[in-house]
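S1.2 Input.
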Amino acid sequence: MVWPPAIDLRSPLITGLSLSLLLRADDPWLHAAAGVIAIASKFVLRIDGKHIWNPAGFAIVVLIFTSNDVWISPGAWGTAVWFSALLAFFAILVLHASRRSDMALFFLGSHAALLFARAWWLGDPLAIPLHQLQSGSLLIFAFFMISDPRTSPDARLGRFLFAASVAVLGHYMAFFMQMRRLSMWR
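S1.3 Output.
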């Protein structure tokens, strides 16, 4: 046993960054609770060294279910092209290193297909699903959370099925169950 043990701070820093970018709360202690829940889930909720859920997403969902003082704000990031481009460039760096770009593309493609199908079914203009796809928090989720190598399946088919399932479940919850507060489940 080596003392002191080697500590890799990248994982908790990425989780903390995800929480700070997505979680909104009335009280500072809720942010601290989210950090504790997320980091604890990294060690407790695992199968064969992989997380069952994305730790930051899990913490946000737990707090949304247990408190009325937390929320995520998909519109907080706006729809500016420069932000989307900056986010895409950072995403390319992260996804290339983790070899999970297909996961983000599978999720965004499935989500977009569902939004366009819904607009077609309702007779809505295409501007509506296009606007829904410009959410900064959607891009953060697709590029940095669902594509997490410790959360996503190793096999390409598994990643596709997982991404499509998350998109379908999120779509069902948002539009059929009217649970818009839980858009983090996507």
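S1.4 Remarks. Residues 8-72 form one domain.
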